């Protein structure tokens, strides 16, 4: 077990103040367009409160207990802060610090009269999604071609073809994770677009530093006779990634791999681009818009197909307050036992993205050759949870690399630990919890 977890310093200095400035600018822009005088007036006080948080970060002030905003989670936050002890924005553990920042923003909004349900990051999420136009249209075309060619669930498809299709769809969901607005500072738009196309996905396969895709397929084949096969996807980002996740869910249903799929969202705006419930409808509003996506040839077939899964209840969404706490998933059994049980009962629990990966691995500074099973702790051996992580590597933690020789090779290929941080490498890590 590693002795230390990640420290917040680097990220506090480079990203957090910028993220808060984004919220100040956003609310200013929205208020300027609003006709309600009271709402506009209140936006000034909110901007001042946001700026105070920004100043506290820039001046490395001590973290102070969260003020009560009437929400039931305040006590838990403050208990955790007390347990950490005296710490500042820079000296605090990274995982707590960044989670706490989003909760501070939400406290300010919760304490307002007119802005309680306002999504402070919606503008950023929307504008990035629209930039993914080419990849959305391409994937819509690819998916409808697959459906037309094979019918997906047909028995006559050869086993090898089914396996390849599973790998392709899984990798689409994997690389969809390259779009993460809280970490976007590290990637140019050109980088993003390069990561999103199908050809790029195929080329990127060699950049999966721990790839258990074959083991997942073997598990699914072995258990295909089970009557109830609910797959849970703990989402990361809205926009393009959510589109790939919904597409992946549709594929899992269409191919008969899952009998139902449940998407887990956050309860309030989190890590800039994470999916909150309203992002699902927003996804469809965008997909329906010929202004956002002018090439309608395949979208016109695909979108009603996706909607139908939601309407029939085969595809559902859920939020659990545990996802917006600062706890790692090693603490799930103690802090959210009902949710833990639900995941034990799940046919497959898929965790998308960087934050989920940090939480799965307790944000530990593990040697890269540590097995995924070991880093999962209570979610690993004997947990009964089938845990699949689909994550492009965007910060520090990465386990499951097969050997030190492989680690050395990666360090040579992408020096300075770039393979853990630049979003161009990834993991498809699976553990059956046996
Ligand atoms: Mg995210």
UniProtKB/TrEMBL annotation:
Its EC number(s): 3.1.3.-
Substrates-to-products reaction catalysed: beta-D-fructose 1-phosphate + H2O = D-fructose + phosphate; beta-D-fructose 6-phosphate = dihydroxyacetone + D-glyceraldehyde 3-phosphate
Alphabetized InterPro entries for the sequence: ARMT-1-like_metal-bd_sf, ARMT1, ARMT1-like_metal-bd
Keyword check for Hydrolase: yes
UniProt keyword Phosphoprotein present: no
A GO molecular function held by the record: metal ion binding
Domain of life from the UniProt record: Eukaryota
One Gene Ontology term from the biological process aspect of the record: DNA damage response
SUPFAM superfamilies membership: AF1104-like
Record keywords: Hydrolase, Manganese, Metal-binding
Cofactor(s) in the UniProt record: Mn(2+); Ni(2+)
Any Gene Ontology CC annotation: nucleus
All residue ranges annotated as the Damage-control phosphatase ARMT1-like metal-binding domain in the record: 11-410
Swiss-Prot/TrEMBL domain comment: Subfamily III proteins have a conserved RTxK motif about 40-50 residues from the C-terminus; the threonine may be replaced by serine or cysteine.
Family indicated by similarity: Belongs to the damage-control phosphatase family. Sugar phosphate phosphatase III subfamily.
Function description: Metal-dependent phosphatase that shows phosphatase activity against several substrates, including fructose-1-phosphate and fructose-6-phosphate. Its preference for fructose-1-phosphate, a strong glycating agent that causes DNA damage rather than a canonical yeast metabolite, suggests a damage-control function in hexose phosphate metabolism.
Protein name as it appears in the record: Sugar phosphate phosphatase
